[in-house]
Write a structure and sequence with these properties.
Radius of gyration: 28 Å
Mean pLDDT: 87
CATH class of the largest domain: Alpha Beta
Distance between the termini: 56 Å
Strand order of the largest sheet: 1-2-5-6-9-10
Largest sheet: 6 strands, mixed
Number of helices: 26
Strand content: 15-25%
Structural class: alpha/beta
Number of domains: 4
Shape: globular
CATH superfamily of the largest domain: P-loop containing nucleotide triphosphate hydrolases
């Protein structure tokens, strides 16, 4: 037994620290201790709770923390905190039996600076304790009628995660066990945050904090909750929330607005809490961005995308612009008290450094990312590499220096709440090429692999057979602890996932439109429950056009995200429109039913295969319930073959872990290339094939070629074959 401690912020640091140290040593209690949380909306304004323990056997214990030796009117404070929390919990019908709250609320005033309590105790009904009497007092407390389900619902109500459901349009269900009914039950079951998620959004550090997690582990929700919590606790702080996918802006605004209302009963002050683009441009406030603000504040040259592309190259435009801005700034202007960055895997280190320089001395930078969702194929370096070193050579940022009693600087979210186990493992198997056929005998079909084997365990996989070591065979699986069973129990596996190959684009379009019509008319799914994703962003508009026209003929309206809408909007909530999207717009969004079209484009490529497979991974992980992967021709048949092999292995990943040399070769073979590099490769390959053809036909003889060049080519090929 132990207590999980989550350290938020309050204005009572000494008593908070004393409480956490005492409770961290206790093994006789269990539950979750929240410091500086929750913040509760009242008619008089936000009411921050000093600390709260919620336990399966004791119910709820509210702590009134006392700094110094003056206990003051602690009885009134206990009454206020209990009454305010009870009023909040009574708004949840699931926690009530007629007019009675189903979970007990207790109060304790904790004064570690008071040695002689007898001089202060006014009433035995209102416990006043210090470091020596706290544990004996806690042992007296019990929940008269403990109930696991009520405990979980109370935890959801306290954390504010029920607001996730409140922000959605209400579902009208007429058919029991329809897809709409199953999706509603699924959404209701996801309402309670786990301990890691609670820690990620409540715990606040002075300095940089990193949150790593799988797709669907709740990173975006955690950042929205964190922004709302910090805004409620520190309304005078300037807080920036930024991201790579522009269509996330509306989603972030809705989440933060809902969470802030829940804690303060007031709209966020958008002058202090800014949801802001990463790049930005001159003009209205909605167009502003972190990089644009940096340039304006430091009076240095601003580059838009066109200018940056011309100077630094299209693929390196934003990285180059941020790097130049950092190099030109003579002094660091402090514009923010905290910056929260989502999708950090899609930003270069220069942008994170730019955010870091815009912060005050506290350097409260929180960045969240998922390594495999990086669509460019590059990985984020270590924090030491990103943020540099001090004058004495020590790293400015490191994550291995936090003690057990401090808020954690590096948090990993292992549990996936969006994707079921089969869906998530399918995404990983295809993303890494686990069951992809090797092109050469004795070779590997792997496309990419983590440099550090332990990362598999950090993202929630366990070893079934073998060892997670370089050169060793290993079999990995996901347990019910990291992939909750309820996410897959609502439907058979053959309904959760389908890979379907067609002979033509017309067959694909006909099948897809028929299924969407059935989803809307028979399955009780709403238009916003459906996303259609085309993985290749270059072909999305032309590929989805005929499908959308066919839907329109059937009386079903749709929109192409970022084309028919502003870039900041993905779903058009409240309007009957099915959403079509390219992969970049789809990132960060989710739906019950996801259709991926033209997946054959993700089978193989002469270049960029790691990025292309990451696009497929990202598309699959948009699904909260059902996924349909569609494609045409032989490439799709091979993708489907990979899935069938995974399914035959009961969704376990079995492979030989590549050595460092092999991983480097994978990076070379499947690397991203710039436009110039691709053109040079294509030109070189054409010339090489033309030369081979001429030699085979006899129009050119080996003796006609430069002997030194032939010998050098032979030497290179021999080295590569070893």
């Amino acid at each position: 037994m132990s207590i999980d401690i989550v350290r938020g912020t309050n204005d009572k640091p000494v008593s908070s620290d004393s409480l956490t140290k005492l409770m961290s040593r206790e093994t006789g209690f269990s539950g979750q201790l929240l410091i500086g949380f929750p913040v509760i909306a009242t008619p008089e304004g936000p009411y921050p709770v000093d600390a709260l323990l919620i336990s399966k056997d004791k119910g709820i214990i509210l702590f009134d923390l006392i700094e110094g030796s003056n206990a003051g009117d602690y009885r009134s404070r206990q009454d206020d905190s209990a009454n305010i929390l009870e009023a909040r919990l009574k708004t949840h019908r699931d926690l009530m039996d007629r007019r009675n709250l189903l979970i007990d609320i207790h109060t304790i005033s904790f004064a570690p600076g008071v040695s002689n309590l007898y001089l202060h105790v006014q009433d035995d009904y209102y416990p006043l304790v210090n470091t020596s009497s706290l544990v004996p007092e806690l042992k007296k407390i019990e929940w008269k009628q403990p109930n696991q389900e009520i405990y979980e619902k109370a935890l959801s109500a306290i954390s504010g995660t029920y607001a996730i459901r409140k922000s959605r349009v209400r579902r009208t269900i007429k058919k029991r066990n329809s897809r709409g009914d199953r999706l509603k039950n699924l959404e209701d079951s996801i309402a309670t945050l786990d301990n890691d998620q609670s820690r990620a959004f409540i715990e606040t550090v002075e300095g940089v904090q990193r949150i790593r997690g799988l797709a669907g582990s709740g990173k975006t929700i955690v950042l929205a909750l964190k922004a709302a919590y910090l805004h409620a606790q520190h309304p005078d702080w300037r807080i920036g929330v930024t991201f790579n996918t522009r269509s996330l802006k509306g989603h972030f605004r809705r989440l933060i607005e809902r969470f802030t209302l829940d804690q303060t009963d007031e709209e966020p002050d958008w002058d202090y809490l800014q949801i802001i683009h990463a790049w930005g441009a001159p003009g209205s406030r909605d167009r502003d961005g972190i990089y644009h603000q940096f340039c304006r504040a430091h009076d240095i040259t601003y580059f838009d995308f066109g200018m940056a592309s011309d100077k630094f190259g299209r693929e390196n435009a934003f990285t180059g612009a941020c790097g130049q801005a950092l190099g030109q700034a003579r002094e660091n202007k402090q514009l923010y008290d905290a910056i929260l960055v989502d999708e950090a895997q899609d930003f270069s280190p220069t942008f994170l450094r730019l955010c870091y320089e815009l912060l005050g001395d506290s350097k409260r930078l929180v960045y969240a990312y998922d390594e495999l969702q990086n669509l460019s194929g590059d990985s984020l370096p270590s924090p030491e590499e990103i943020f540099g070193k001090n004058a004495d050579g020590s790293p400015k940022v490191r994550f291995d220096d936090a003690s057990g009693n401090e808020a954690q600087r590096d948090i990993i979210l292992k549990k996936c709440y969006r994707n079921s186990r089969p869906v998530l493992v399918t995404a990983h198997a295809l993303g890494f090429g686990i069951y992809r056929e090797a092109l050469l005998p004795g070779g590997t079909g792997l496309i990419q692999m983590f440099d550090h084997p332990e990362l598999w365990e950090e993202i929630g996989y366990q070893t079934r057979d073998g060892t997670l070591e370089e050169g060793s065979s290993v079999t990995l699986y996901r347990s019910k602890e990291t992939s909750p069973k309820f996410l897959e129990d609502h439907s058979p596996i053959d309904d959760l996932i389908q890979f379907i190959s067609f002979d033509s684009q017309e067959e694909q379009a006909e099948w897809l439109t028929r299924e969407i019509k059935k989803n809307l008319e028979n399955d009780e799914l709403r238009h916003e429950d459906i996303i259609v994703i085309n993985p290749d962003p270059r072909t999305t508009q032309s590929n989805v056009g005929p499908i959308r026209s066919r839907l329109l003929e059937m009386g079903i309206n749709s929109h192409l995200a970022g084309v028919d809408t502003t870039p900041d909007i993905f779903f058009q909530i409240g309007r009957d429109l099915v959403t079509f999207s390219g992969i970049y717009r789809a990132k960060g969004n989710e739906a019950g039913m996801v259709y991926i079209i033209n997946a054959q484009d993700c089978h193989s490529s002469l270049r960029n295969l790691a990025s292309i497979r990451n696009q497929l991974f990202t598309a699959i992980t948009r699904s909260k319930a059902w996924i349909r992967v569609l494609g045409v021709g032989s490439g799709m048949k091979k993708i489907k073959k990979e899935y069938n092999e995974l399914k035959s292995q009961d969704f376990k990943l079995q492979f030989t872990y590549p050595t460092e040399k092999q991983r480097e070769q994978l990076r070379i073979v499947h690397r991203d290339m710039t436009t110039a590099e691709r053109k040079r490769l294509e030109k070189g390959q054409k010339s090489l094939f033309d030369l081979i053809k001429d030699i085979e036909s006899g129009s050119i003889h080996i003796d006609d070629l430069n002997a030194e060049a032939v010998a050098k080519l032979k030497e290179i090929l021999m080295q590569k074959s070893q």
